[in-house]
Design a protein that fits this description.
- This protein is α+β, with helices and mostly antiparallel strands and 171 residues long.
- The protein has 2 domains: 90 residues, RRM (RNA recognition motif) domain (Alpha-Beta Plaits, 2-Layer Sandwich), CATH 3.30.70.330; 35 residues, no CATH class.
- The chain is built from 4 helices and 9 strands.
- Strands 4-5-3-7-6 form a 5-stranded antiparallel sheet, covered by helices on one side. Strands 1-2 form a two-stranded antiparallel sheet. A two-stranded antiparallel sheet has the order 8-9.
- The longest helix is centred in the last third of the chain and has 10 residues.
Length: 171
């Protein structure tokens, strides 16, 4: 459709039926060897794929160089999660107007930091002991018994225990 401005300039305007509309979907962390067919199969449940291509670096370079992001132009039927698996690889999916979704559980309306499922898991597990090098050096011994390197014996004697723990890489 064309629109005529008061200045006389004519602009082409594209009208769409209200809804999800056409979106430019960016897919990151996808290996370059992933086939176009695999990508199309993974994206198909979310709408009609109109085009699929590699995003390239700026035009100011002499040759077009792919930057590792695939771009799909789609008429969406439903929203994408922010992360999904395509051909066995976990990828990041983003587009304008995408609702917030959780990396941990895949639910919408919250992010991983505030995931209600994650909070339950964290509360269920006991806190890890503070065996940082600074704590061991200050007190002279770790807060839990540690296994001596290469043996099945436990060792909790002052600086010797701290040195064993440091050498075994547990700090």
């Amino acid at each position: 459709m064309e629109y005529k401005h008061t200045t006389g300039v004519i602009s082409v305007v594209r009208l769409e039926v209200a809804g999800m509309g056409t979106r430019r979907i960016r897919i990151a962390n996808l290996p370059p060897e992933t086939s176009e067919q695999a990508i199309r199969m993974a994206l198909a449940p979310y709408g009609e794929i109109m085009a699929l291509h590699d995003e390239v670096w700026s035009k100011m370079y002499r040759y077009p160089i792919a930057n590792g992001i695939r771009v799909a132009t789609m008429k969406l039927d439903k929203h994408f999660p922010s992360h999904m698996v395509i051909a066995g690889d976990r990828v990041i999916v983003s587009y304008e107007g995408q609702p917030v979704s959780c990396y941990a559980c895949g639910g919408t309306g919250h992010m991983r930091q505030t995931c209600p499922h994650r909070r339950i898991e964290e509360q269920a597990s006991p806190p890890a002991p503070d065996n940082s090098w600074a704590k061991v050096a200050a007190t002279g011994k770790p807060t839990q018994k540690t296994r001596a390197e290469g043996t099945g014996e436990t060792n909790s004697s002052g600086a010797e225990g701290a040195q064993t723990q440091f050498q075994s890489g547990n700090v």
